[in-house]
């Protein structure tokens, strides 16, 4: 039998397909053709069956589906470390919102997003959800660097450099949705910022439009105790009840944070098939509370993972986030068996794909899915001994061990280096921003 020609053949010591759950394939290979996974088979058989001009032999590596960061604000990476050790509302009111009013522009979003994309690719993330001003620029940068992205049109009642009011945010967002209607890597959804920044009228409009366009809705929700108290004081209902009254609860709704949940809330999420995006490090850093993910998953609710912006994390490392999620779940539920390593890995991959409505094409390594693949090199002394590579990936390694990344079969990281992004030029731009922002912030604090 003549060998079949494929575009790439990746041999690896361990392949962790994620579906089926908790499986590790030893000495297997992935054959890629036209951006899709054609086959996953034993390495010896792969050499007999396929020929490829690009063959990778990753003898000390674990291969997983590309990681999916289901919540973030990419360009806020330029605010990394700007304001630490503060609770959410003073962090937002006294630092982040003033800094955003001063600095956010198309140029800021372009450079900040490029920095975030570099960090995400280098740490194995192949798909990210983003909610921020200038989503047109975020989309442009994702397109330029060939990373998969689900980008939310931001919607608030407040003016920003991007739009003056909810109507304008929606108007510009719809135009963007149109621009990317048939894009292979990018799709656009609705991003009402939070219940406390968006009116009933705007939320109703979003529901109608999202239904019409079959688009996702992504919202910061039940993030702090204060948010619930204020909502009850002002309208007599919990934010989730309010969204239910407006008709927004559906399998297209991505609820970010959810640290304040009672039994009725969990029932509402479950009955309506809503997704929860858990951001454990951001919640810990801002002391917002704990999302009871073990309880949610026991109720059959899909829980995905997000880093949130680098200003409240302060990195975009999804393997690190999965470790925090696993450890925190054990502490919160007082049960060491809660969220085992393979479940944490699912949260960072297939559960993210489900939340984003993309699980037919990404989130696991299976024939006919897109070749969005991350390889982690476990060859160093510090990585030894390895009994279970899934345990290792979650509890012992971090994104810095990522060696190769493919998106739709295209190699974007090779031997820990970006293949097509000019890191020197980017570093120069980032330092320039740091110097500008630092000088202004210092002057401001001296005035007070
Ligand atoms: Zn956020």
Describe this structure in words.
The protein has two domains: 4-65 and 366-415, Urease, subunit C, domain 1, CATH 2.30.40.10; 67-355, Alpha-Beta Barrel (TIM Barrel). It is of the alpha/beta class and 448 residues long. The N and C termini lie far apart (79 Å). The protein is built from 16 helices and 16 strands. Helix 3 packs across helix 4 (135-145), helix 3 packs across helix 16 (423-447) and helix 13 (341-347) crosses helix 15 (389-396). 41% of the residues lie in helices and 23% in strands. A hairpin with a 2-residue loop joins strand 2 and strand 3. Zinc ion binds at residues 71, 73, 220, 308-309.
Roughly what fraction of the amino acids lie in strands? 15-25%
Overall mean pLDDT score?
96
Terminal Cα separation, in Å? 79 Å
Question: What would CATH call the class of the largest domain?
Answer: Alpha Beta
Strand sequence of the main sheet, in spatial order? Answer: 3-2-1-4-13-14-15-16
Count of individual helical segments: 16
The CATH architecture of the largest domain can be given as Alpha-Beta Barrel
Largest sheet: 8 strands, mixed
Number of spatially distinct domains: 2
Radius of gyration: 22 Å
What can be said about this structure in brief?
The chain is of the alpha/beta class and 448 residues long. It has 16 helices and 16 strands. It has two domains: 112 residues, Urease, subunit C, domain 1 (Roll), CATH 2.30.40; 289 residues, Metal-dependent hydrolases (TIM Barrel, Alpha-Beta Barrel).
Features:
single chain; 448 residues; alpha/beta; Urease, subunit C, domain 1; 4-stranded parallel β-sheet; 16 helices; 41% helix; binds zinc ion
């Amino acid at each position: 039998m003549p060998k079949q020609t494929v575009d790439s053949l990746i041999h690896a010591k361990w392949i962790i397909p994620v579906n089926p759950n908790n499986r590790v394939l030893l000495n297997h290979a992935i054959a890629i053709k036209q951006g899709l996974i054609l086959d996953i088979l034993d390495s010896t058989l792969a050499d007999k069956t396929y020929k490829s001009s690009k063959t990778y032999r990753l003898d000390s590596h674990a291969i997983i589906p590309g990681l999916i960061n289901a919540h973030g604000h990419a360009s806020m990476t330029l605010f990394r470390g700007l304001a630490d050790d503060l609770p959410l509302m003073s962090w937002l009111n006294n630092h982040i919102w003033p800094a955003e009013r001063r600095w956010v522009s198309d140029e800021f979003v372009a450079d900040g997003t490029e920095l975030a994309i570099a960090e995400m690719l280098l740490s194995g993330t192949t798909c990210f959800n983003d909610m921020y001003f200038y989503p047109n620029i975020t989309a442009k940068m994702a397109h330029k660097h060939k990373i998969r992205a689900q980008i939310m049109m931001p919607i608030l009642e407040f003016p920003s450099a991007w739009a003056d009011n909810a109507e304008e945010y929606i108007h510009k967002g719809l135009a963007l949705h149109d621009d990317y209607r048939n894009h292979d890597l990018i799709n656009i959804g609705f991003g009402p910022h939070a219940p406390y920044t968006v009116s009933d009228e705007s939320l109703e409009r979003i529901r109608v439009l999202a239904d019409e366009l079959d688009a996702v809705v992504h919202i910061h929700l039940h993030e702090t105790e204060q948010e619930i108290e204020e909502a009850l004081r002002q309208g007599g209902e919990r934010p989730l009840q309010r969204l239910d009254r407006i008709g927004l609860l559906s399998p297209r709704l991505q609820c970010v944070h959810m640290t304040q949940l009672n039994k009725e809330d969990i029932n509402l999420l479950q009955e309506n098939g809503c997704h929860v995006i858990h951001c454990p490090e951001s919640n810990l850093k801002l002391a917002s509370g704990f999302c009871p993910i073990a309880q949610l998953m026991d109720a059959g609710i899909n829980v995905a993972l997000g880093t949130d912006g680098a200003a409240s994390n302060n990195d975009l490392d999804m393997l690190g986030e999965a470790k925090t999620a696993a450890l925190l779940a054990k502490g919160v539920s007082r049960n060491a068996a809660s969220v085992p390593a393979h479940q944490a890995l699912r949260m960072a991959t297939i559960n993210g794909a489900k939340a984003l409505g993309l699980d037919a094409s990404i989130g696991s390594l299976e024939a006919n899915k897109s070749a969005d693949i991350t390889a982690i090199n476990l060859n160093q002394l510090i990585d030894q001994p390895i009994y279970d590579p899934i345990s290792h990936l979650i509890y012992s390694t971090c994104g810095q061990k990522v060696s190769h990344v493919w998106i739709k079969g295209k190699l974007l990281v090779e031997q820990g280096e970006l293949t097509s992004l000019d890191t020197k030029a980017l570093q120069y731009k980032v330092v320039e921003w740091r110097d500008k922002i630092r000088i202004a912030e210092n002057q401001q604090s001296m005035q007070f």
